[in-house]
Design goal:
By secondary structure, the protein is mostly beta strands. It is built from 3 helices and 23 strands. A 5-stranded mixed beta sheet has the order 14-21-20-16-18. β1 and β2 form a beta hairpin. The N and C termini lie far apart (174 Å). The relative contact order is 0.10.
Length: 300
């Protein structure tokens, strides 16, 4: 069979010619395959110099959840590895992609608290690689849930209505609203307001103040100690399980046991049966009945 060439000349196409052409093509393909798979060729393709080692920068970094960090693979070329070059051709990988993922450009994204090993492996020489540990921290986990109450001792109120106050604040941001409920262990001695302090994700770090007010009675019962009881209600399990300290308070007494008799002088009676009167009253409420016995020093 004859086929016209581009020059217009006729070329004889024979089975022998076709077989020869196929053999030549197969040989070329085999040569190229061997050439590109040769480890020696791989080592010299990049930069024309042998790659001795790879160094990842930054080394041993720490980032917070949600942050991104760009790693750079510095290649060292030459027979003695003395020629550095930023941006060596590498494949990036992360040993724990749930902690941090790394893309083809070496950009790592922190996803969860923990650590993962970031590895850069040469594209052209798989035996050359370097690794570093990336640590991911949770900005909240470093400060555990906690409730600070201050002061918890030494508060003094009085039966005259004297007041004292204390402050409450959360130690870390809650995942749900936190209510610190307040009540008096003895409302006859003192009351507290407000009855609850609500902390949210926006005001958790702001100190809130509660006021304790002393209550009056008429009994000479001395100074009395009582407590303001604190408790927590929250859908944040870390906070709901806490038991903040109660606040100790002393209510000072303003009553003194006594008997007032009036008048105690100047009364006049007569032998004809004239009379005079005196009044008697207690100065404070007694805890039991009090009898005032009266008698004359001269009945004649």
């Amino acid at each position: 069979m004859q086929s016209p060439s581009r020059s217009g000349r006729k070329v004889l196409v024979t089975r022998k010619n076709v077989i020869h052409a196929l053999r030549v093509a197969a040989s070329c393909l085999l040569f190229l395959s061997l050439l590109t798979s040769c480890e020696f060729i791989k080592r010299y393709l990049y930069g024309g110099l042998p790659l001795k080692e790879i160094e990842i920068t930054p080394s041993e970094p720490t980032v917070e959840i949600g942050a991104t960090l760009t790693f750079i693979a510095v290649g060292y070329y030459g027979k003695d590895g003395s020629i550095p070059f930023d941006g060596a051709a590498v494949n990036w990988s992360s040993s724990d992609t749930s902690v941090a993922a790394v893309d083809a450009e070496g950009i790592a994204t922190a996803l969860a608290e923990g650590s993962t090993i970031i590895t850069a492996t040469s594209v052209f020489y798989s035996k050359v690689s370097d690794s570093t540990t990336l640590t991911v921290t949770d900005p909240q986990s470093g400060t555990p849930a906690g409730i600070s109450v201050s002061p918890t001792l030494g508060l003094v109120t009085s039966e005259a209505g004297g007041e004292a106050s204390f402050s409450v604040v959360l130690d870390s941001e809650p995942t749900a609203d936190v209510t610190i409920e307040l009540s008096s262990g003895n409302s006859a001695e003192g009351t507290v307001a407000p009855a609850g302090l609500i902390f949210t994700s926006t005001n958790w770090s702001i100190y809130r103040t509660a006021t304790v007010t002393g209550q009056d009675d008429a009994v000479d019962d001395g100074d009395k100690d009582y407590v303001i009881i604190t408790s927590v209600v929250s859908d944040d399990s870390s906070y709901n399980s806490l038991a903040p300290p109660d606040v100790s308070v002393t209510n000072t007494d303003d009553d003194i046991a006594g008997i007032t008799v009036s008048p105690t002088s100047g009364l006049v009676t007569t032998e004809l049966g004239g009379t005079a009167a005196i009044s008697v009253v207690l100065d404070s409420q007694p805890t039991g009945d009090v009898s005032i016995l009266l008698s004359s020093s001269d009945t004649f």
